[in-house]
Design brief:
alpha/beta, 6-stranded mixed beta sheet, 15 helices, 24% strand, globular, binds NADPH dihydro-nicotinamide-adenine-dinucleotide phosphate, binds 2-oxoglutaric acid, Ald_DH_C, oxidoreductase activity, acting on the aldehyde or oxo group of donors, NAD or NADP as acceptor
């Protein structure tokens, strides 16, 4: 089996490969991927530091061409890369290909942004002095990504980092090295100079921690759990480094009496269960007003009966497996916790057997839940959702906002008044009306409030805020 190595200073290096396993079929080994040591991580950081002076002054046409070429290759290979993604992460083939296309579009977007770099000239308050405001690269950027979006999240961090002239040390999640390796291989062949982008696949506790401890990393962008996010924050404060965190969610989806029932059910099922519920934008709290509650729950049950849970690569599968045994244990633990807390398991929640050994779980829907239960407060990160019954819109909004998180918030309603009020008053970075809480555009800001996020927004033109630092220059005539 071919060993996929790490890329350090423009060379493919490293041995000690570990097997990348398919969660739909644990007998299927996708490939062998090198695991970097702390020494490898240090070498990658040194390479990124050495490459910074030249790359930060590189021409915008060079950056544009490399990002554009990368976009073109990702889009041309979308079926193959989407299949690899689904095979290593377990989301369905349609979702895997969709995410791959999104990654291609992100590189295309930032290829364009490289040609639109601009500053400002502002008159000084003093006569005969000019003030120029420019954006410069922030420096060596450390990128640490999770397993649930193996190509889109690396894309939306690597593309702006390179576009704005930074060099990169990239550590993908240990569970999904295949998509990460492919994207780095494409960028390398697209002509990136040595050391501009370094790939260090390996354990967070070794490679990630070495990045956190290095004074030579000037900014870290992280997506993952709240616990690791806090470590990134503490280490970054220690080094006075810029950092950006995207951590979990407990996203509410409100259904009002006046909702179109089929729109509400479709959006709730998508929010809670698609991508096996493994999205930080997933909704696991469905807050339903009492006039529609019983009809909504019955319709959810019917819709859930029609879901096919099977091998991610099989035609007709709606929901693939959970990513691994440890996440499956977390999901089933929360199902047990919900039952103990007194919520009613209305549908699903059983482990499933399929033709191949994999981590299959029937999506679970609790009813009679309260917002104080642990299943309503803690991120489960699996296909488990609970319905919370409320009296009216005011109570729905209060319950929706009563959470330590604030990433995405959704509502199903035909009332313009309530939709408008909800958009203004939902305590979240993203609000969805008659749409799932998950599934976002690639060219607009992404991020949350409260415990979900820290730092400036990712994606779209707002990404420039994180990947650049502002310089104000005064010139006397
Ligand atoms: N907001 C989101 O999108 C996500 C949220 N989560 C939440 O997190 C839970 C656990 O998932 P998990 O993958 O373990 O999340 P982690 O936060 O552990 O993983 C995210 C990334 O951080 C790395 N990492 C782990 N420890 C360190 C460290 N000490 N220093 C630097 N980097 C580190 C991981 O490496 P490695 O995996 O290689 O060890 C991975 O690349 C999920 O059940 C879910 O609740 C998970 C994924 C995405
Ligand atoms: O909703 C989406 O499409 C993006 C979600 C995401 O980035 C995440 O769940 O980690």
């Amino acid at each position: 089996m071919t060993l996929h190595q790490n890329l350090i200073a423009g060379e493919w290096v490293g041995g000690n490969g570990v097997a990348n396993i398919n969660p739909s079929d644990t007998n299927d080994v996708i490939g062998e991927y090198a695991r970097a040591s702390a020494e490898d991580a240090k070498a990658a950081i040194a390479a990124a530091k050495a490459a910074l002076p030249a790359w930060s002054r590189s021409g915008i046409l060079e950056r544009h061409a490399i990002l554009r070429k990368t976009a073109d290759e990702i889009l041309a290979r979308k079926d193959e890369l989407g299949r690899l993604l689904s095979r290593e992460e377990g989301k369905t083939l349609a979702e895997g290909i969709g995410e791959t296309v999104r990654a291609g579009q992100i590189f295309d977007f930032f290829a364009g942004e490289a040609l639109r770099l601009a500053g400002e000239i502002i008159p000084s308050v003093r006569p005969d002095i000019g003030v120029e405001i420019t954006r410069e690269p922030v420096g060596v950027v450390g990128i640490i990504t999770p397993w649930n979006f193996p190509i889109a999240i690396p894309a939306w961090k690597i593309a702006p980092a390179l576009c704005y002239g930074n060099t990169v040390v990239f550590k993908p999640a240990d569970l999904v090295p295949g998509s990460a390796w492919s994207i780095v291989d494409i960028l390398h062949r697209a002509g990136l100079p040595k050391g501009v982008l370094n790939l260090v696949m390996g354990k967070g506790s070794v490679v990630g921690q070495t990045m956190l401890d290095s004074p030579d990393i000037h900014a870290i962008t992280f997506t993952g759990s709240t616990g690791t996010g806090k470590r990134v924050a503490l280490a970054s404060v220690e080094h006075n480094r810029k950092y950006q965190l995207e951590m979990g969610g407990k996203n509410p989806f409100v259904v009002l009496d006046d909702a179109d029932l089929s729109v509400a059910v479709e959006a709730a099922v998508n929010s809670a269960f698609f991508s096996t519920g493994q999205r930080c934008t997933a909704s696991s709290r469905v807050i339903v007003t009492e006039g529609i509650h019983d009809r909504f729950v019955a319709a959810m049950g019917e819709r859930m009966k029609g879901l096919t849970i099977d091998d991610a690569l099989k035609a007709g599968t709606h929901i693939g497996p959970v990513v691994d045994q440890s996440q499956l244990n977390q999901d089933t633990d929360y199902i047990a916790i919900g039952k103990r807390e007194g919520a009613k398991l209305a549908f699903g929640g059983e482990l499933l057997k399929r033709d191949t050994p994999g981590f299959y779980l029937q999506p679970a829907l609790f009813t009679e839940a309260t917002n104080q239960m642990r299943i309503s407060r803690e991120e489960i990160f699996g296909p488990v959702a609970s319905v919370i019954r409320v009296k009216d819109y005011d109570e729905a909004l209060a319950v929706a906002n009563d959470t330590p998180f604030g990433l995405s918030s959704g509502i199903a309603t035909t009332s313009l008044k309530h939709a408008t009020h909800f958009k203004r008053n939902a305590e979240a970075g993203m609000v969805m009306v008659n749409l799932p809480t998950a599934g976002v555009d690639f060219h607009v800001p992404f991020g949350g409030r409260k415990g979900s996020s820290h730092g400036s927004r990712e994606q779209g033109r707002y990404a420039a805020e994180f990947y650049t630092t502002v310089k104000t220059a005064y010139t006397s005539a």
